[in-house]
Amino acid sequence: MIKFILLAILVYAIFRAYRMLFASSSLSPQNNSQMSANSQTQRPPHIVLGIKPKATDEEIRAAYQRLIHENHPDRVATMSDEIRALALAKTKEINWAYDQLKRS
Questions:
Q1: Rounded-to-integer distance, Cα 21 and Cα 90, Å
Q2: Is the pTM of this model over 0.70?
Q3: How far apart are the first and last CA of the chain?
Q4: Number of other CB atoms surrounding residue 95 within 10 Å
């Protein structure tokens, strides 16, 4: 029973992340891999990482590591191609945001 509940929570989290990534733009899983990391995100880097605009370097690094751990494509390697593509797109977006914040 607990395995079923955990599986349901995982499916819900993946579905929600999928919806959040593609709902606010005209992206689709099919053409998402063709877009560069810079053009695939319209959100400011601090929004992508879920931190305050004036976050410290430690907060930026912690948010980056947490999000990469949660969204890395290797975590969904055995799942469908669409889910792997979603994880890859999210990872690219996180890496782009981290690079932008580290440059400034």
A1: 8
A2: no
A3: 49
A4: 15
Structure tokens at 104: 């400034």
Tokens 């995982």 -> residue: 10
What is the sign of the dihedral through the CA atoms of 94, 96, 102 and 24?
Answer: negative
Reported residue count of the chain is: 104
Contact call for residues 19 and 78 (beta carbons, < 8 A): no
Task: Pull the structure tokens for residue 59.
Answer: 């907060």
pLDDT digits (tens, 9 = 90+) for 67-101: 999 999 898 889 888 999 999 999 999 999 999 99
The neighbour count for residue 90, using CB atoms within 10 Å, is: 22
Amino acid identity of residue 22, one-letter, is F
Whether residue 60 contacts residue 103, with contact meaning beta carbons closer than 8 Å, is answered with no
